[in-house]
Amino acid sequence: MRLPLAILRDKRGSALVIVTLSMVILSILGLGLLTISYGVRYNSTKIQNEAIAMLAAEAGYETAVFWMEQQNDMVSYIQASGAYTGSLTFPNSTCDYTVSLYSFSGSRPVYRVTSNGHCGKFSRTDDVLVIQAVSGWDMGMCQVPNGTSSTGPVYFTDGEVIDMPIHINKADDSPDNMDIFVSGDPQFLETVSMGEDRYRSSGGVDKYAGQIGVFDAGIDFDQPDSKITDTAAVQSKVDRFKNSTKGSYTFTPGHPASLTTPEGAVQLEFFVQGGVGKVRITNNCTVRGYPAGSRDYELKPGTTDQYRQYNIYAYHYSPTNADATGQRTTQTIASTYVTQTIGGVTSDPGGQIFVNGDVIIGGNDTVGGNAQVVNGKITVVATGNIWVADSIVLDGDHDADGMPSKSNTNALGLISQGVIKVVDPGIPSSLGNSERNQLKNSPDYAPIGIPDPFGHSPANYSRYLPEQMVVEAAMTVGGGGWGAENVGSRREYSSPQDDLIVRGTITEVIRGVVGTVGTDGFLKHYYFDRRFLEGILPGDIWLQGKYIPAPAGWNDYETIH
To answer: What span, in angstroms and rounded, lies between the C-alpha atoms of 345 and 102?
Structure first.
């Protein structure tokens, strides 16, 4: 049967409408899919470019910090050249970065690293405040010289407490062995960091497998070296310190007395009077050098791995009529204060004394109890040796464990381009009769330490240091090590060993001997004064080769062009 023409036309019209609607719907779906596809591609490209810009910025930051770690002294660089800029180019991105001095936290420089990574329309900026790391005990080598060109291990032993972070530079030794030496179970209460790898360079053997458990707070490997072994870096610090010290506290001592192997020195005696920190300064002292013992070495000037025995401290003379001639004066520590101003950025004030020669710290009658007491913030720099002839403590509050309290504002820094050593005041009794008589009758003899409490005669020069020697200071030793002189035959208050208590920091080129195990010298009790992290110490004496973000110092953000 054939349908009427009108009905056929209606059906054909409906089909056309359906086809048209279908085409419209499919077009809309296609357009939607294209839009979605474009959006996915766009977002993918956006995310990719953002990530690339972020990585470029981080690469710039890492490059800038690496550059900082190669500099002898960042403050001196900024002072001479201003901000440092650099750039990096990658296949699909670029980066530019700037290093500048941002501020001082107390006396501790704070640097600003700004790194901008660019990719397409996107830029990522890392804006980071950076500070030089401060460690507790840094050493170039955990060894002591036993000859002019040879060294031997020095051990951390049973009974020793080391409550400070330790860093040891990588030794270029062959075969490749551990660069730290441990006997028994000393107490490492803070992290130990090593410049070397944990595994032997040949064969991949774990060098630390047998002693890893000794390091109670952990051990880190492959860390940047301390610059204490870089003589140019130390010299840069010393030069800047000298140039910023007041002329009236810059000394070049002579040695007017006629003594065997004389050394010119300045004697410093710290005390508190009426609540005011003071220092008695005696210029042009003459130290009688005494033949070195088997452990008394220093770095040979101009070398990094050659050593020489040096004349240790025996006793010293003050210049005749030192008070009347003005060669001995008493000053307030506050009168030594200066500020560092670099590019309009100024540090907190702090005391500075510079000696182009040797320094003796200690005396006979400055304060009761035979201890040097420091009230104020002061750093002493010597181009020669610093001889510690008494306990040195900080005035002000201390915690129950003996550490200076966080609220204590007093601090002492010591930098020597020679050695920093605890003297043996018992040596004069070992001299010949003729020299002892001369010493006894000289009005210029300057006794140190404690008069003999055991009845030996004459007590004038038969002397001891305290049974517990305490040194509260940050010490930097650019020409050798921190330790005790005449170990092996030194006069001790008690037998067999006294205690040497350090509350502060130590940075040394090579380990100085403190004692011989169980027989002579001192047992170490070393504690990290964390106040130094807050910039309390004037002079910027730190030599760590590592820079880290300051607390809450990291800021990053994105921009679209």
So the answer is: 7
